[in-house]
Amino acid sequence: MNKTPFVSFCLTICLLMAIPMGCSDNDKNKAGDSSVKATMPANSEPTQTQQATSLQPTESQPLASEQPKEISIVSPDIVLSETNNLSNPKATKEANILYNYIRDIHGDYTISGQQESTWNGTPDYEMNYIKDITGRLPAIRGLDYINEDFDGVTQRAIDWWKQEGGIVTICWHWGTPPNGVGYESSKGTIDLEEALTPGTELNQGMLAQMDRVAEELKKLQDAGVPVLWRPFHEFDGAWFWWGKGGSENFIKLWRLMYDRYTNVHGLNNLIWVLGYSGEVKDGWYPGDDYVDIIGADNYSEGTQVAKYNKLAQSIGTEMPIVYHENGPIPDPDEMIKDGAKWAWFMTWHTIHIMEQNTPVYVDKVYNHDYVITLDELPDFKKL
User: Is pLDDT larger for residue 126 or for residue 4?
Assistant: First the structure.
C-alpha cells in the first residue's frame, strides 16, 4: 500500500524554480512527548474537566489534510469469500465475508480502529480529529450501548457500514441486572449464581436486559450490518460484575448469551470477540464453539507482544488475535519487528487518542503501509 505523500514533487519544484513554497523545516510538525498518561479510567465517561480538547495546529504546523498529498486507495490483494469459518453455522453472508477478510489480513496488516465518544458535541469528535491530522479515517468504528443510547448507536453503526463502508465493533458497559445503567453500575456486584439460575427474579431481570440489546442487534442484521460483538470485555480483570463471580460463572454467562442470541433471537450477523484484560488470565476461555476472535487490551506504551504471544500460544494463530482497546497506539514498525501481529488496534476515546498520542505520531501510523485505513478497505457489499 503506497502512502507516500506528494511532498517530493513540491521539494523538486522549490529547488528548480527557486520559488518560496513553504518547504523549510520550520513548516514540519514537531514531535511532542507521546508518553502522557491518562488520569481517567479506561472505560469511564470523563467529567467536564477531564474532557480532552482538539489539539489545534499553529501557523507553522499545517494539518495533514491541508498539505498536498497523494492518497492511493489500494486494498490488500485478498479475494473476499463467503465460506463459513465462524462458530455460528448460520452466520450471514456479510458476517462471513468480513470475518474471512480479517482472517486473511491477520499477520500481514493491522486494521486501524477508533472508539467514539458522544458527549463532545458530535459522535464524530475523534473521527474528525484523526481526519484533520492524517487525511484518513479509521477502518473500524467502536461503539458502546453504555447509556442505553440504543437508537443512536444502532443508527451510527448502520451509517458507518452502509454509507462509509467501514467496519463496526460494539461493546456494552452493561449496568448490573436487573435494571442498572451506565459505567458506574457496570462495576457493581450481583450474585452471579442466582442470576444464572433459571426462573429467579434476578435471572429474569438479566435476560430482559439481554433481550433489549438483542432487539438493536436484530435491527443491524436486518440492515445487513455484520457486528464485531465484544460483550463482557475485560472479564478476567474482575472489575465488572460479569467477572466478579469467577471464571466458571463467566463461562456459563458467555455461553448463555451466545445461545440466547444465536438460537433464540436468530442473530447470525455477530462475530463473537472475546476481550481479555491486559492480564490475560488462564481458565476463562468459553470454548471454540462460542468464540470467533480473541484479544487483549492495555493502556501502556509498546507493542504488547507478550500478551499477543500468550494468546497465540493458548489458541493458535488460526483465529484472529486483536488489540481491542489501547491508549498509545503500537508503533507499526515495532509491531513488525516484534512479531506482535494484532489483526486490529482500537484506540480509546478523547484523551487516549489526543494526549497519549501526538498528532505527528498519529499521522505516521495512519499513513503507514502496514496499517489499513477506511479508504483501503475492500467493498464488502460488492460480493
Answer: 126
Segments making up each domain of the chain, as ranges: 1-23+67-74, 81-376
Q: Is 182 exposed, middle or buried, given 0-12, 13-18 or 19+ CB atoms closer than 10 A?
A: middle
C-alpha cell at 167: 467496519
Q: What residues have CB less than 8 Å from 201, skipping those under 6 apart?
A: 178
How many CA atoms lie less than 13 Å away from 372 in the CB half-sphere? 25
Cα of first residue to Cα of last residue in the chain, in angstroms, is: 22
pTM: 0.82
3-state SS, residue 255 = helix
One-letter identity of residue 370 = Y
Q: Is 32 exposed, middle or buried (0-12, 13-18, 19+ CB in 10 A)?
A: middle
**In Å, how far are 111, 150, 208 from 213, measured between CA atoms?**
27, 8, 9
In this prediction, residues 226-234 reach a mean pLDDT of: 98
Strands (E), the chain: 110-111, 113-115, 140-144, 167-171, 227-230, 270-275, 293-298, 321-326, 345-347, 371-372
Q: What are the pLDDT digits (tens) for 19-51?
A: 333 333 333 232 233 333 233 333 443 333 333
Beta carbons within 8 Å of 278's beta carbon, 6+ residues apart: 237, 296, 297, 298, 299, 300, 304, 307
**The C-alpha cell that represents 346 in the structure block:** 482500537
CATH classification code of 81-376: 3.20.20.80
Q: Which residues are catalytic?
A: 234, 325
pLDDT digits (tens, 9 = 90+) for 119-148: 999 999 999 999 999 999 999 999 999 999
